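Course assignment 3, question 2. Fill in each field.
Student: A.L.
Task: Predict the tertiary structure for the chain below.
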Amino acid sequence: MAAVALAQTASQKPSTDVRRVGMRLACQCGCKDSVSTCSMLECGFSKPAKERIARMQAVGMTDDQIVQGFIRDYGAGIYLAPPSAFGWIVPYASVGVGLVFIWLFLKKYRKPKPLPEIGPIDPDDPALDKYKDQIDRDLANME
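Answer field:
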């Protein structure tokens, strides 16, 4: 059993170098993954591509030379560029813009309703005298 485990090819258990280069190449089997992350069992493209990458690395080719060889053979569509700073900023910036729009919407439509104008209050109003007397009697009863 141990001999079978050790006899795995480069495509079955790729080294970190093969995976590093494979992440820069799109799998051509129809999935949207890279050569390193293709999840199709017995993929007709990623398995031979991993073996080819391992052979090219064994010869001493650099990562860029390997990628250029694949681009030459399969076209520019095989190259997967690493995400740029723009790709990292856009999701966070869109969340920030959305929060600003929500805040502005709430600020505009969630204003408290103004109290109706009742006019000036006259402290010597005769209608208030009966309430003042009632207040005085209630305060006297509390003591």
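Instructor remarks: Residues 2-78 form a domain with the Helicase, Ruva Protein; domain 3 fold (CATH 1.10.8). The CA atoms of residues 125 and 132 lie 11 Å apart.
Grade: pending
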